[in-house]
Amino acid sequence: MQLKSDQLAAHLAKGLRSMYAVWGDEPLLAQEAGDAIRAAARAAGYGERQVHTVSGQHFDWSGLLGAALAMSLFSDRQLIEIRIPSGKPGKDGSEALQRYCEHPSDDVVTLVQLPKLDRTQQNSAWFGALDAAGVTVRVDPIDRKALPQWIAQRLAAQGQRVAGGEEGQRTLGFFADRIEGNLLAAHQEIQKLGLLYPAGELGFEQIESAVLNVARYDVFKLGEAVLAGQVARALRMLEGLQAEGEAAVLVHWTLTEDIRGLKRVKDAVASGKPLPMALREARVWGAKERLFERVVPLLSDHTVAHLVEAAQVCDGLVKGLKHPDWPHDPWDGLKRLVLMVCQYVGSGAPRRPPGVVVRLALTA
Fold it and tell me: Which pTM was predicted?
């Protein structure tokens, strides 16, 4: 049985299963999902807790199997946690987990904690056994578009809210910009607001004075912002990555991979392949797939070639090679590349000759 993290509370209210696997790469939500399962287990009388962390290839899986069968000295019910930080239990672990899932006990609740899993891991025999034996809870990051609503819900849980209408949306947008990519810090900032101000409506000035700029930016999310034509957000993320000490070469590689992907898909469609097939062959999926579906028809072959050429120039900049028509600083070059892509793919933007876009990027 598969659930998303926001469905877990309703599930636990109906009863407790003997097996749970929580997986995903959002620490706050994964922690809260685990806490909710632990609380439900304690309330149901599972009084003893054992924690097993799988680290390296020499973990004693036989000891884990024995723990599930052994009766507790203090309680006839126990919670067993299995933490696999790598997401790879190995051959012995895979076999042990499958055997473990074959004989669930009513006196044991098992919580398996995992990081984000790729498609191969999700299709593995051991993960399939966990899913068949109980509940797998997928923890997804909160998308930027959903962040304001998520913040509003968290404020409401502690009796606070922002003003209605456009003013409130501006306040929530400001809050989201300051904590994007760092939900743990967002949680702390929301709690801080609960301590600083009483229940009721919060104004923009109150939130502005209390909320720190604790955003953490993901270099791969930068590519999504660029393909979506979100100029202000993309530039803010680029500046944040630079301030966090991210390597310019990694940022360039991410942007270039998207540009090369656009060219591969564009060429495949031009050769007669349907767009969905071209996207699969180019290994484009998830959020990027939806963005490519919108962007590819907007771009001419000449435009894509121009972006590829710009990416090549920028590659030289991040490696220390100067270009007479480009800034010498690699991050300024990356900024220009971001602006060029954003202006080509911007939602509803009129088609402009390449020279016009370059001039706009130069003056930005």
Answer: 0.64
